[in-house]
Structure formats: C-alpha cells, structure tokens
Write a structure and sequence with these properties.
By secondary structure, the chain is mainly α. Helices cover about 55% and strands about 5% of the residues. It has one domain.
Length: about 190
C-alpha cells in the first residue's frame, strides 16, 4: 500500500489520493510495483520536454498537460496492461472530481468536467500509440508523441493570447464566475488548432 502512495504520488501534483486510486492500487499491486520502477524515466522525460520548452508551459489544460498524459500512458503500457492503466486513469479523474468538490487543486487549478474529458482522451491516444508502436525507446516515443500533438491528434483547452480560458466562441471565461461549478464553458480543441 505504501508503495502505491510513493509511486503514483510522483505522477500527480497532489499528495492525497482518492479512494478510487487507493482501491486501484489494492487491486493491482504488481502494476503499482511496475509503475514505481518505470516512473523515474517518465519523470525525466516530462522534465526534459518542459525544460526544453517544446510545448506551452500549461501543466493544466495545455499541450504540456496533453503530453504528460499521452507519454505516461504510452510508456507505461509498454509494460502494464492497457486495461489496468485505463482503470487507473479513470480512478484518477474520479479523484479529481472529488477534489473539486472539496475545493482542492491540481497543478494550481481546480479540476472541471472538460479537463477530465481531455485527460481521458489523451490517455486513450497514449494507449493507441503504444498499440501501434510497441517497442519504442523513450526518446523515440517522445518524438512520436510530440508529432501527434503537432498533427492535432491530442486535445487541449483553448486559451486566448493572455492565457485566459475561452469558450468556443472566443469569449474569455471569468473563472471567478464559476467557483463551485463542475461544468464550465471551456472549449476542448485539437492540439493543431
């Protein structure tokens, strides 16, 4: 159990885990061990992409967020069954919804319904990338994920040039107007838009 907290905690910006993630860890102890073993390479790659400024620097809702989900799931699914990782992704997003209702944040922002949809879609792209490219080395996988993002295969939340979230009709969203609301009028778009 402690192993689960140690390894999955490094993937997330939060230090507490939802009951959904805990139950996943109890049900998949060997997958937890594999995540712990594989996690340092994932973290190194994420730091590299962020440090090299290969994408925007938006860890929540941006292309960097999309990269994190896609790369992590593609890399982990090389050694862990996709169905197990899919359940972890769903458990994590359920946990984000629970955090939202507790007023807590992840990566400096409150989760919302569309952010969870974005994350789950990007997780699926990671699974698809691995299914089609089973034995890629980390650097090759990074380049492929970056190309998928450039080609618009991934998803992110639209922002204006000032970094504010906007609706699909380009109207800036005043986040203060949506405190305590799970459904926001953000706009989920392809990463090449």
């Amino acid at each position: 159990m402690l192993l689960y907290f140690f390894c999955v905690g490094s993937l997330s910006a939060r230090t507490k885990f939802s009951k959904y993630e805990i139950f996943w860890g109890i049900g998949h102890p060997f997958a937890v061990w594999k995540v712990k073993v594989l996690l340092p390479e994932v973290q190194k790659m994420l730091s590299s992409v962020k440090g090299d400024r290969l994408l925007d620097l938006n860890e929540s809702g941006g292309k960097l967020d999309a990269f994190r989900h896609i790369y992590t799931m593609a890399y982990l699914s090389q050694k862990i069954k996709t169905r197990k990782l899919r359940k972890l992704g769903i458990a994590h997003e359920k946990g984000n919804k629970r955090l939202f209702f507790k007023g807590e944040q992840e990566f400096g922002e409150r989760a919302d319904s569309l952010a969870c949809v974005m994350d789950l879609r990007n997780n699926e792209l990671g699974f698809q990338i691995n299914a089609e490219n089973k034995c890629l080395k980390p650097e090759e996988l990074k380049l492929l994920v970056l190309q998928q993002i450039r080609d618009g295969q991934a998803w992110y939340l639209k922002r204006n040039t000032q970094g504010q979230y906007v609706s699909c009709d380009e109207t800036p969203i005043n986040m203060a107007d949506y405190i305590g609301k799970w459904f926001l009028p953000k706009c989920l778009i392809r990463t090449n838009e």
